[in-house]
Amino acid sequence: MANHSVTTDSHGSTPVVGQGHGSHDGHDIGKAIRTYLIIFGALIVGTILTVWASYIDFGTPSINIVVALAIAIVKGGLVAGFFMHLVDERKVIYGLLIATVFFFSGLMYITLWSMEPLSFIHFK
């Protein structure tokens, strides 16, 4: 027969849950909080860059849009990577993310293509 022991609280009545394997020590939590604070700081800097870039005329509106979208893509990547934990996930998650980007790009292409006057699906 197996010998089982149960750890109880200070009153001796309730089993203590969460001790042993599976619990986090203070170093791991401190490291995670530090990472989140660094990402938060990077997002604040990105927001400041976005506002700053909105006051600069880069020559054409297209370049202004490209700059704004580049900053937004970096910020979105930080949010998805760290706050949504995609940095630590498996290849399946990355595959689904790539598939989403692929199909979204395809839908945007079809939408823009349908607006072309010479397109066979152009609606008048």
Could you characterize what this model shows?
With 124 residues, the chain is mainly α. It folds into two domains: 26-87; 89-124. The chain has three helices and no strands. It has helices at residues 26-54, 61-83, 91-114. Helix 1 (26-54) runs antiparallel to helix 2 (61-83). The longest helix has 29 residues, at 26-54. The model has no long low-confidence stretch (mean pLDDT 80).
Work out the radius of gyration: 25 Å
**Total beta-strand segments:** 0
Average predicted local confidence, pLDDT: 80
Structural class: mainly alpha
Please tell me what the overall shape is.
flat
Total domains: 2
* Proportion of residues in β-strands: under 5%
Largest pleated sheet = none
Helix fraction? 55-70%
Helix and strand pattern: HHH
Low-pLDDT stretches: none
- Number of DSSP helices? 3
What is the chains' assembly state?
single chain
Spatial gap, N to C terminus: 82 Å
Briefly summarize what is shown.
This protein is mainly α and 124 residues long.
Features:
124 residues; mainly alpha; 2 domains; 3 helices; 61% helix
Record the SSE blueprint.
Layout (H helix, E strand, L loop, with lengths): L25 H29 L6 H23 L7 H24 L10
Helix pairs in contact: 1-2
